[in-house]
Recover the amino acids of this structure.
C-alpha cells in the first residue's frame, strides 16, 4: 500500500508539473497531456521502486520500515548522568557518515548537528536533547528532520540516522537502555 501511495503521489505531482512545462513546448494539447501522463507514470514507478529497495536495505539492517517519514524522533532512557551521556551522544553523531556537530550546549544538554548531502537527501538536521529525570537517570531525545523543510521523502535516511544513534548509545552503555518512540 505504501509503494502504491508513493507511486500515485509522485506520478500525480510530477505529471502535473510536466503538463505545465509541456503545454508551453507543444502546440497540441493532446500531445502535451499524453507526454505529461507518460512522464508522470514513469517517474512514479521509479520513485516507488527506489523506495522499495531502500526499505529492503533498511530491513537487512534490522530497522522497522513501517514509518520512513523524513522527520524521526526517539526517546532513550539511560542510567547515567547528563555529564556522562553528552560525550556518548557526541560520538554517536560523529559515527554517522558525513555528520558534523554544529552546536553543543552543556547548560541545556543539547547537541545540534548536520549531515551532508547524499543522493537520498539534501542533508539532515539532528538534535539531541537530554533531561535529568531522577538520580543517575537521563532521558535522551533524538530528532532528525530534513535540511530542506519541504522534503517529503528521504528514502529512510532520517530513520537510519536515528536508529544508528540509538544503537551506538546502546552499545556504549552495554544495553542498559530503555527505548521509546
Amino acid at each position: 500500500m505504501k509503494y502504491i501511495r508513493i507511486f500515485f503521489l509522485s506520478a500525480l505531482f510530477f505529471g502535473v508539473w510536466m503538463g505545465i512545462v509541456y503545454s508551453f513546448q507543444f502546440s497540441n494539447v493532446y500531445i502535451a497531456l499524453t507526454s505529461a501522463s507518460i512522464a508522470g507514470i514513469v517517474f512514479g514507478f521509479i520513485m516507488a521502486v527506489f523506495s522499495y529497495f531502500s526499505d529492503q536495505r533498511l530491513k537487512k539492517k534490522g530497522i522497522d520500515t513501517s514509518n520512513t517519514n523524513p522527520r524521526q524522533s526517539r526517546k532513550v532512557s539511560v542510567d547515567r548522568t547528563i555529564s556522562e551521556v553528552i560525550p556518548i551522544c557526541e560520538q554517536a553523531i560523529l559515527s554517522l557518515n558525513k555528520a558534523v556537530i554544529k552546536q553543543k550546549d552543556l547548560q541545556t544538554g543539547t547537541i545540534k548537528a548536520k549531515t551532508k548531502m547524499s543522493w537520498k537527501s539534501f542533508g539532515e538536521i539532528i538534535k539531541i536533547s537530554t533531561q535529568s529525570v531522577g538520580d543517575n537517570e537521563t532521558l535522551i531525545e533524538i530528532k532528525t528532520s530534513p535540511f530542506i523543510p519541504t522534503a517529503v521523502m528521504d528514502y529512510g535516511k532520517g530513520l537510519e540516522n536515528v536508529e544508528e544513534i540509538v544503537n551506538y548509545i546502546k552499545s556504549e552503555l552495554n544495553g542498559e537502555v530503555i527505548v521509546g518512540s
